[in-house]
Amino acid sequence: MGNHILIIDDEKNYLLVLEAILEEEGYTVTALGDPAMAMTYLDESEVDVVITDMKMPGMTGQQVLETVRKRHPHVPVMIMTAFGTIDRAVEAMKSGAFDYITKPFSNDEILLSVGKAMKLSHAEQQNRLLRESLAEKFGKETIIGNSKPIQDVLTLAGKVAPTRSNVLVTGESGTGKELVARAIHITSDRKDMPFISVNCMSLNPGVLESELFGHEKGSFTGAMALKRGRFELAQGGTLFLDEIGELSQEMQVKLLRVLQERVIERVGGTETIAVDFRLVAATNKTLQEEIVAGRFREDLFYRLNVVNIHLPPLRERREDIPILASHFLRKFSLENNRQVQGFTPGAIDYLSAYEWPGNVRQLENVIERCVVLSNRDVIDVDDLPPELRDEEMQFKSAVDLLPLKVNLSETLEKIEAALIRRAMVHSGFVQVKTAELLDVSKSLLQYKLKKYKITAKT
């Protein structure tokens, strides 16, 4: 949390005295004599406490209070007033001022009041971050699925959550890596502190550095005010760095230093700031390959990869597809005020058979489309997008997921095993029905089941 105080007073002597007293105590102080200019500055800056004189030309302390309360209700406002206008200060207190100080004031008096106001400001900031974190958490989907792969993920996340270890979540795009990070956070002892998320691919390196480390006022063109970065905002909580494999070499070095020393310096600053956060990183890249290619630092990888949680693609947990589809159906029916009740068996078959290159995110988008465009109370095959209904497109989608260089024999066996597993899901794991779906004899199916170590009902 910061310690930035904005002082507003048209009497220059009081500005200078207050600035000196507060800076000596370690506060960051901005002193302005024009209240209108101060309000503009407040809108563009991160200020923790405002101290304003009551009687000023152009704008009174009461008007400053009302403006701050309206635009920045979490910032405590202290009123300074001459002895003869205490009654106006009392009225300001009734309007929401934190405290009032009479001129002339003693150093101890002002420091005691400022200290209390700063504690309140920090508490308000913490509560605001927590509310935002909770809003994000409950606005997102939870991890859904009964399959063994996803249950293994949840078990591992539950084991690592109470620890302080860094976690690297890997998996294809759309598998739900951020959901795992949030699950770790809300089941840890940091659950009441902020969850701060940053996508490393969405920002260029210069902007990303400022976003993570923050910057001092005037540190670069456009830096009109001090800004605290995500490392500071995650204080006591969890920092989630998505797409960590996209970090530039320079940013990798800086992140490694933060993880080793647990201190940062804002861009353009010299002050060393201690940080305490739990790091969860995620990537859809194979970082070991990036290391070999010289694009990712090996020492940073080992710092990140204390515990690795790999999220399986949706095609490897097909039994979860009907559960997820029903969940998204309820969600989007409610959001769009529709009365869609479910899926026909044929629609579920097509959903379960598709390869889902975009994983859970793609499934969610497909179900939303179905709910919005369907004019029936049950989603049928005709409501599904063409790519799910076209078998040739399905096969092409599956083949496109394979690397160009493959062992043909091994790959064909994997495809055969996958087709058998898919047919088993559709048949309710009954061998006779599975054999019919695959157009093979029961004895051949039993041979294949034994070969690929697949179990099924008789």
Offer a concise description of the structure:
The protein has 458 residues and is of the alpha/beta class. The protein has helices spanning 12-24, 35-44, 61-71, 86-94, 107-139, 148-160, 177-186, 205-213, 230-233, 249-261, 287-292, 298-304, 321-335, 345-353, 359-373, 386-389, 391-400, 408-426, 431-438, 442-451; strands at residues 4-8, 28-32, 49-53, 77-82, 99-103, 167-170, 195-199, 214-215, 227-228, 238-242, 263-264, 273-274, 278-283, 307-310, 342-343, 378-379.
Structural key phrases:
458 residues; alpha/beta; Rossmann fold; five-stranded parallel beta sheet; 16 strands; 14% strand
| Helix share, percent | 40-55%
| CATH architecture assignment name of the largest domain | 3-Layer(aba) Sandwich
Q: Quick one: how many beta strands?
A: 16
- CATH top level of the largest domain is Alpha Beta
Q: Can you tell me the number of structural domains?
A: 4
Radius of gyration based on Cα positions: 30 Å
CATH topology group of the largest domain: Rossmann fold
What is the CATH homologous superfamily assignment of the largest domain? P-loop containing nucleotide triphosphate hydrolases
Class by alpha and beta content: alpha/beta
Mean pLDDT: 86
Rough outline: elongated
